[in-house]
C-alpha cells in the first residue's frame, strides 16, 4: 500500500501495539522509535477520528501525537460539500450518552 503522488509512492505502515508489545514499540530510551515518529510534526500521520487514539497514546505511553491528518474531518467536509448531512444518529454516541447535533446549521 502507499500514498500516491505525482512523482512517488509513499509507504503506509500499520502498527499494532498490542501484538508487537508496548515495550518494543515505545521503549524507555532516547533512540528513534514509533514515539519519536508520532511526535514529529513534520511527518503526516493519516488517522480517522484520532481523538480516542490520541488520548490513549498520551495517557498510556506519554506520546504527544503531532502531524495528524484526521480523515474523518475530510470525509465530513466532502459530505457537506455534496449537500449531505452527517448521520442523524450514531449508535456509538447515543449508546454512551454523548449528544449529537440535530442539524449542521447549529455548528
Describe the secondary structure blueprint for this structure.
Layout: E1 2-4, E2 9-11, H1 17-20, H2 22-25, H3 34-38, E3 45-47, H4 51-61, E4 68-70, H5 71-81, H6 91-95
Summarize the structure in words:
Strand 1 and strand 2 form a beta hairpin. The protein has a two-stranded antiparallel ribbon with strand order 1-2. A two-stranded parallel ribbon has the order 3-4. 37% of the residues lie in helices and 11% in strands. It contains six helices and four strands, in the order ββαααβαβαα. The protein is α+β, with helices and mostly antiparallel strands. The chain starts with a strand and ends in a 12-residue tail after the last helix.
Strand count, sense and closure of the main sheet?
2 strands, antiparallel
Tally of individual helices: 6
Given the helix and strand composition, which structural class is it?
alpha+beta
The separation of the N and C termini measures 36 Å
Strand content: 5-15%
Helix content: 25-40%
Strand order of the largest sheet: 1-2
Nearest-integer average pLDDT: 76
- Overall strand count: 4
N-to-C series of helices and strands? EEHHHEHEHH
Taking all Cα atoms into account, the compactness measure Rg is 17 Å
Shape designation: globular
Low-pLDDT stretches? none
